[in-house]
What does this fold into?
Amino acid sequence: YELKMGVIALAQMTGAPVIPLSWAPARAWTLRSWDRFIIPKPFTKVTVGVGEPVEVVRQKGSELQEAERERVQNILRELTERTEREADFAQ
It folds into this structure.
């Protein structure tokens, strides 16, 4: 659940917006691994959330890039939480 700086750097270099995407299954197995990998159970309903495109400020500088990374990460987290609620998915 952490957005990496490469997404922001790529958006700044290309001028392309970041499109937040999230998904959540209604029923799934959650592995006991470090990342709690999720495997949807067969024939389960999967809810997909698509957010509005996020324009990233093209100016560079470590402080500005970190601020943009946090902003986009927060948008993605909100979308993920909403998608998981809609799917009634609990880890």
